[in-house]
Amino acid sequence: MLAAAVGTAILGGCTNTQAPTPTLTPTASSPSTSSISPSPSPTPSPTKTVVPDNAGDVLEPMSCTPLRSDDKPKISGERQQIAVDNGPRVGATGQALLDPDGTPVAYVVAADDIPDFISDRFCVGLAYLNNVNGPRRGGAMVLYAGDILNFDAETVTTVGDINGDVEDYPLPAPLPPQHAPEFTLQ
Predict the structure, then answer these.
(1) Which pLDDT score, from 0 to 100, does residue 186 have?
(2) Quick one: which of 87, 141, 145, 132 has its CA closest to 105?
(3) Distance (Å, whole) CA 85 – CA 123
(4) Is the link from the previous residue into 174 a cis peptide, with omega within 30 of 0?
(5) SS3 call for 126
(6) How many CA atoms lie within 13 A of 26 on its CB side?
C-alpha cells in the first residue's frame, strides 16, 4: 500500500490529466485468474442477407432462375421467358393476369411496386421485361399504379400501358408472331 501511495504522490506532479488505471490484486478469497479461461466464441457461418422493411417484412434476393422456352420463336434473338407467379411480396403486390392455361401473361401494377421485385415474383429477367414492354411502355422501369406490364413476347403489340397511355416505340427484331391477349384476373 505504501508503494501505491508513493507512486501516486510521484505521478501527482505530472501534467497528464488522465486518472491512473486501477490495478486489481487477487486476494485469498478471489478465484485465481489462471483457472479462468474464456471459451472460444463460435465461428460465424455465412447466411443469406436479408433487409427488413419498415413493416417487418423481409426482402430477399431473387430466388429463381427464369424458365426459357426452346419451342417458341425468339424475341430480339433471346428465348422467350415463361412467367411463374411466386406470390405477392413487398414491392410486387399487384395482380397477375393469367392465360387460359393459368400462366401469368401480364400484371396490373400496384402502388409502391418495384421492377426488381416484380421480376423476382414472376421469375423473369428485367432485360426480358424491358424488351417485351418496350414498344407500348418504353420498358418496365417506370411504374404507375394501374399500369399493365406484359410478360408474353407474343402480345408485345397489344398488351401494356404506362400511366394510362400506350406509346409507339420501335418493335424488337425479330419479333415472334403476335396474337390478341387472352387473360383473366387472378
Answers:
(1) 62
(2) 132
(3) 7
(4) yes
(5) helix
(6) 8
The amino acid occupying position 104 is P
What's the total number of domains in the chain? 1
Predicted local distance difference test score (pLDDT) of residue 140: 97
Cα dist. 83→66, 69, 71, 105 in Å?
8, 11, 15, 7
What is the three-state SS of 11-76?
HCCCCCCCCCCCCCCCCCCCCCHHHCCCCCCCCCCCCCCCEECCCCCEECCCCCCCEECCCCCCEC
Positions of the chain with pLDDT lower than 70, given as ranges: 1-63, 185-186
DSSP secondary structure code for residue 148 in this structure: E
What is the pLDDT at residue 68? 80
Query: What pLDDT sits at residue 26?
Result: 52
**Residue-range definition of the domain harbouring residue 132:** 79-179
* Distance from C-alpha of 82 to C-alpha of 78, rounded to nearest angstrom: 13
Please calculate the CA angle 63-69-74 and round it to the nearest 5 degrees. Answer: 120
- Which three three-digit cell numbers place residue 108? 396490373
pLDDT of residue 77: 85
Is position 45 within any domain?
no
Beta carbons of 53 and 90 less than 8 angstroms apart: yes
pLDDT at 32: 47
